[in-house]
Amino acid sequence: MSTQFYNSLTRKKEIFKPIEPGKVKLYTCGPTVYDTAHIGNFRAFMFEDLLKRYLLLKGFEVNHIMNITDVDDKTIKRSFDENIPISELTKKYTGRFFEDLKVLKILPADNYPKATNHVPAMVRMIENLVKNKNAYIADDGSVYFAIDSYHDYGQLINLDFSQQKRSNRILADEYTKEKPQDFVLWKSWKEKEGDIFWDSPWGKGRPGWHIECSAMSTEYLGNHFDIHCGGVDNLFPHHENEIAQSVCATEEPFVNIWMHCEYLLVEKGKMSKSQGNYFRISDLIEKGFSGEILRYILLNTHYRSKLNFTMDKKHEAEQVIQRITDLYDRLLSINNTVENNASLPKEYSQFERALDNDLDTPVALAIFFEWVRKTNIKLDSDSLQEKEAESGVYFLDKVNSIFDLIKENIEVPKEVLDLVNVRQKARQENDWVLSDKLRYKINDLGWIVEDTLTGQKCKPLKS
After folding, report:
1. Are 103 and 235 contained in the same domain?
2. For residue range 227-255, what is the model confidence (pLDDT) as tens digits?
3. Across 195-342, where does the E strand assignment appear?
4. Which of 27, 85, 162, 301 registers the highest number of CB atoms within 10 A of its CB?
5. pLDDT category, 452, cuts 50, 70, 90?
């Protein structure tokens, strides 16, 4: 079965074919760093991590870009409310975001471009839109995109203009689809904004939110790339506007596949600070959740279905994590070496087919858990062969490269970590002789180093 993803743009599943064979250009909307990201935000980031990990497992080379929105209406308002420079505010919350990524074991992007570092690229894109008559300059020096100039506007959310109440323009970054409006590309400077401005051909000001992602994605991935992701809340106006301005500015196709994950609910309701059900990752860690537990909860529901987060899911997730970790340890005690020509159990092809079907994690995990059950029965009856143990470790490694649920509570000695880091550099430089020597040296110290899709991993070498 070929890998298929649901394309929000065409509203159907499509066979995935990258523009350049073997390589995937992926852009994911990152955080707006005016506050600490909450569990709902991380539902989207976790889905994107799943997608990236699966593409890596399939053998693709993935170039992943995730933006950091460090200037917009929200960041400016928060900096004024807290009476601190916007750079200080965004630095604090960017740092917290990266801390949470580590806790959740989310693979880092290849680049995290910040909006404030790419304003010249945004100005150039706006200049092209003005030149192409897709944008116009208002009396105050603000620049707006004329949605009437792009005939396909509304295609992402299947918007019927004839049924909509229309107004001329809007300055705010966010608004509803009940009123399609010309949206702002460049906001003219207001005295109340103090020193938050950049120079442009239209005077002092700052970019609108939507132009930021268009400029940064095309700067790093080219005008036409493979996949763009986000939550369903990004569909309109953000992604709809991205498509319009990007296509009009570059006069090329923009993105082949748009993928969006559904909302996360808490106890079947909307998350709200006033309701006391607003959770940051640090809040949940304090309540006894781990990165593995949160990964399982966030990935156990299909990304296009609403996810209901409840506190009582913690117990079930703990049991699942422990069962998988225990099985892995039991198999390693029988056979801790996976040969290059190792086979996989028949369940792996079923597991892979499920993920090929638009990342169907519930079905994939059901197949995996049934294999876990049968394997434990064999282990309990002492009827599992050494070759089956090797096959099982291989299967678990593949599953873990995607879901990353196996607990890692082992403290690796600094001497071993130093050798692992040197070996990683040797591998990057294609010095395979040195890489092998370092592997044996690590073995002599009682550790085994494994090369996985997500990097090198160290485990005690069991006799």
Report:
1. yes
2. 999 999 999 999 999 999 999 999 999 99
3. 205-207, 225-231, 255-261, 264-266, 307-309
4. 27
5. low
